[in-house]
């Protein structure tokens, strides 16, 4: 997509997309009983050892949170000085801080991707431009599609919802003097070896990497993530952050998830997830009506099939929740996102999906 065509989205508001819809809306209230393929949190988490660490922290709730140990742990995990780390109440908070702290003139968000960065920028009064990647190119980035004078660029890697893993070198090409390059790596710890990560890089000017501990460790309700950036950027974000933004239990969780044993467990989980994702893709390939976007690298798959909106409703009647795709700029009503689950769950789901597809054809 050319810079000129990207600019056509400038004054369109959200342009008909519900940017504040997220997968958890599919499994609230009575719908919590559905088999959940809508939320990209690893099933069976948090592990017992992590729950025990968090529970033990409750004895210290009378004291104000002290994030120094957790900050040092995160820094050591990525081989960075602590001055390059900011702990946040989930990665989503970081988007709000960036929108409020940075004096951006021409922010650009690369879509399809997680919609919260654009929402945060709009809420802060910014006019947001979109660069929409093309399905025909496998939703892969062409660095030249980003306007040269964009002073803030946001992209996910691996990208939610496409599951595309962009080469680190291609993302680094987006860096410019005077530009902040925000790479959302919320799902990078689900990629075996975390290949293509920029988290430990200090040679890319203006780089901001966002990480989440909620997906792999099942801590969405605890809210813990972090920012990796140049010290001046960290300081600017910290100035607009509320006092004590991260709770003591969340700080304990952050420190615990950075230990060598936790990192080894996450690496093993990433390998299992990759195998489970391959199984899901293979089973979906049995359905001629379904097209799987790939190659995929995240803990989810993006699929396209005619009549997906009606099929999604029928799947709910059959006991399964999946994520609608029409709230993501660049997609539409024929797209669904599926969280990767264990092979037995996948097999049950594919039977239900085949039934829903067959009924829609009648």
Could you describe the 3D structure shown?
The chain is of the alpha/beta class. The protein contains twelve helices and twelve strands. The strands form two sheets. The protein has a seven-stranded mixed β-sheet, with helices on both faces. The chain has a five-stranded mixed β-sheet with strand order 1-11-12-10-9. Helix 6 links the parallel strand 5 and strand 6. Helix 4 packs across helix 8 and helix 10 runs parallel beside helix 12. The radius of gyration is 20 Å and the shape is globular. The two termini are 38 Å apart.
Lay out the secondary structure.
Blueprint: H1 3-7, E1 35-37, H2 48-57, H3 68-78, E2 85-88, H4 91-101, E3 107-111, H5 116-123, E4 129-132, E5 152-156, H6 168-172, E6 180-184, E7 207-212, H7 214-217, E8 225-229, H8 231-239, H9 248-256, H10 260-284, E9 291-292, E10 300-304, H11 308-317, E11 320-324, E12 335-339, H12 343-361
Parallel strand pairs: 1-11, 3-4, 3-5, 5-6, 6-7
Antiparallel strand pairs: 2-8, 7-8, 9-10, 10-12, 11-12
